[in-house]
Design a protein that fits this description.
Length: 217
């Protein structure tokens, strides 16, 4: 009688390393976390913001994309790190008090160049507040879903929308119910596209680092 080997490749491990948060992938390679700089211009409470970030981290973890948050609370208390130049794997989410579009149905916007690249996105807090009691959703769950959606745009580039899941261009009542349960996700295709994009940046960063190495003997 034999025994079953556990499929190690299916195990996903979170490792804290000196270089930051990484997530081991099924193929054995590591992905370094992307970092989201959060500007809380809408003064969302710390507890709700922390809960939203935790939920959004879970949505990305399901996609095997590790994520780290850097809260740049306001100008007086802004962390030194918030002033640094953004690296390829660093993005900005600004929670603004009022939506900048005419439609009340729009929860946020990601600013993308024609080639689909972009670093900045806004989340409209007034739209979240006015929807918070619908279908069991809450401020934290909506804020996490909208943030994940906008970061999804920044990671996926052009053509990021899909008919189903967190990247649907319009959320139905059923979607709002899933958001309330923290169950609205990226599709498998979107998940692998995000990981590929991050691995490309990582490979490029490693190449640049090696090119800068100088022999000292
Ligand atoms: Zn969208």
């Amino acid at each position: 009688m034999g025994f079953k080997l556990k499929t190690l490749s299916a195990l996903v491990l979170i490792l804290i390393t000196g270089a930051g948060l990484t997530l081991a992938q099924a193929d054995g390679r590591n992905i370094t976390a992307i970092t989201i700089f959060v500007y809380n211009d809408a003064h969302v409470s710390h507890s709700e913001l922390a809960a939203a970030e935790r939920q959004a981290s879970l949505v990305f973890r399901e996609a095997r994309v590790p994520i780290a948050w850097l809260n740049c609370v306001d100008n007086r208390k802004m962390s030194e790190d918030c002033h640094r130049r953004l690296q390829p794997n660093e993005f900005v989410v600004r929670i603004v008090p009022k939506g900048q579009t005419s439609s009340d149905l729009v929860f946020g916007v990601a600013f993308l160049a024609e080639d689909g690249s972009g670093k900045y996105s806004d989340v409209f807090f007034d739209r979240i507040e006015s929807t918070r009691h619908e279908e069991g959703s809450s401020i934290a769950s909506l804020l996490s879903a909208v943030t994940a959606h906008e970061v999804g745009h920044l990671l996926l580039g052009s053509h990021a929308h899909s008919p189903l899941g967190i990247m649907a261009p319009l959320w139905t009542k059923a979607d709002l119910r899933r958001i309330g349960m923290g169950a609205l996700r990226f599709t498998p295709d979107q998940s692998s596209r995000m990981r590929e994009r991050i691995q490309e940046w990582q490979t490029h960063a490693d190449t640049v680092r090696l090119a800068n190495v100088r022999r000292i003997d």
